[in-house]
Amino acid sequence: MAEQFGAGMLLACGVFAAIAGVTKIDVFTTVAIVLLGFFMVWEIRRVSAQQLLTAAVLFSVGSVAVLPSNEFFDVLLQASEGTLIFVSLFTGITFLQYPALKSPSLNELREFIVSQPPGHRYLILSISAHFLGALINLSAMGLLTTFLYGKIGPSSRQRMACAMIRGFSLASIWSPFFISIAVILHIKPELQWWDIAIPGFPLSAFLLFYSWVYDRIFSHHATPTSATATPTDSVPKLSVQAVVKIAFLAVVLSVMFIVSSKSLEVTIPIAIILVTPAIAIGWQFLLSRSGAKDGMLEMFHTVSMNVGKLRNQILIFISANFLGYGVARVIDPELVSSTLLGAGIEGWIAIFFLLVTMLTCTTLMLHPLALIILVGQIFPAEVLGVHNISLAMCMVLVWGIATTSSPASGLTMFMASVTGESLWRIGWIWNGGYAFGGCMIGALYISFLNHWLLQ
Length: 455
Prior knowledge:
Number of strands: 0
Structural class: mainly alpha
Radius of gyration: 22 Å
Helix content: over 70%
């Protein structure tokens, strides 16, 4: 009952955030923030110790930065309002996750992916994690990680885990279902989703190819034996019907989000929370008609329970928001620009400098969200010859790369719980070199993009 009460508060928070996004009436935003505060007070005792410690560090550093200016409560309010983006996005995604995990077409695709023979697995798994993640977010990892529980050796398990998290995280460069896009559009309201997605999709494709090449060069490839190899003729076929249904779902989601966002003049996260419940209900209705045992009541019960489990992520996002906005209040952007210009850091050099600095900070466990907010507030992009879209691309690139190499990222924590490996090993040893190389490739791409945009 206590968990249901907390879930109810968060669902109500998401509803009021959506109403505020549509009506632009401040009182609804205030109600949503109050409900968010009550939710965290109610759920704080259920937050894991590790997340509490991380949040305490983020919040403490932010407090040290903001207390001398007597703007503590202003920054806290700003951080809470920024967290409403996360609540809207993930509440909507939670609705979509239930029918996605029950979908025969998506489960057929999963069986096709995990049954691939050695030599094909890494590339197919990373591409599948990428596109499924772009469509159904974390449900993709739930579908695919069953492969890691099979009878595969430690070397293969490491490679397949890396394939999943690398492919999945790269979807955050362009997919509207990732918080990276939502945060950047919040701090850069002059940009639209497609301003990032159009150049972001080719970049993610280049990095997927780089990920495969990196694996071929640097990973130890065990020679498959007759006991472990999967015969090619035993791989299940993927039906045309399943492919068509998945493609149709992707088109419907994209069109509905774009149309609702433009017609109602709301952000993508608000469009998602407005649209996904209706899509989920229709999807579950079709599944029920085709013989699925679970009905609507079971779906709503599961969704409400899963919404309540967002407590850990919400606490981290509030704390990271607070740190980012707090530090930004005490740093003068003009001082930053004059310092960088005095050091000759501008144009493509500024892009490389920014990406290396951000990747280093996230690898040393500074949360990507706090860093993106800070950079968005204080980095004088156009003064340094960096187009606004190029700056946004730097932010999503760091998010897409650094979530694999940072021991503090939720994705690394998730994979650690699946594989039993330490956060440090997954982040620094498995993915440290990959992240740095990907950052350099991304920097080259963004530098050329920036030169073209400024012409």
